[in-house]
What we know:
The strands form two sheets. A two-stranded antiparallel sheet has the order 1-2. A hairpin with a 2-residue loop joins strand 3 (127-128) and strand 4. The two termini are 40 Å apart. Helix 3 packs parallel to helix 6 (168-179). It contains eight helices and four strands. The protein has helices at 18-41, 53-64, 81-93, 106-120, 135-162, 168-179, 194-209, 211-218, and strands at 2-3, 9-10, 127-128, 131-132. The protein is mainly alpha-helical. Helix content is 54%, strand content 3%. The longest helix has 28 residues, at 135-162. The chain is globular.
Amino acid sequence: FKWNKYREVIHQAWVINLNTRIVFITTLVLLIAGTVIIYFLEYNYSLEEHKGLGKVVTAFFASVTPRSAGLHTFNTGSLLTPTILIIILLMWIGGSPASVAGGIKTSTFALAILNVISLARGKDRVELYRRKVSDISLRRAHAIIFLSLIVIGISVLLVSSFDPDKKLLDIVFECFSAYSTVGLSLGITQQLSEPSKFIIILTMFLGRMGTLTIMMAILKKVTHLSYKYPEENILIN
């Protein structure tokens, strides 16, 4: 809204809605932050063979590809542990909603961060750009994050049990990559046992279809509630 010279309220429609703004800003932050972090971490290691602009481009590509591209321009097995952890985070976040990318999606990650900031500031709602984020969106975001960590955690546990000779970091990387349908690996995929490969396949299926979507399809869905219970607060932390 804005006022004209006659003090009349004029409504201006949004050309870009809140969802698009959140997705755009989150994607931009992930690309820039990922590129900068990988550039400085791998400057004297996997990026050592590149010169000048080549280092920046390679670091940028390494920041983009974990979010469902599945391509790489250097040996992932030669990366430093901090870089691998950053790539795991990028794979887990994935791409944006309404796309073919995997992961929990950029909007889900952004809503979780915004909710934490809102709670820390003592607010009872999440507000952004003069808009209030719906409660159902926040509930779905936290449910997706929780279920993704449960699926990946069980996958890591089972693969570690079937292949105890493999390094835990390699298994974690493999499971996160499978859930987000990225295609990156630290080189242990072909060495896994048959049960572990089945777990990886199942993890990919759950990540691709969406665990919450599958649960909603299986469980009976209540379309309308004609009653409401008294509300109570639960002690947290």
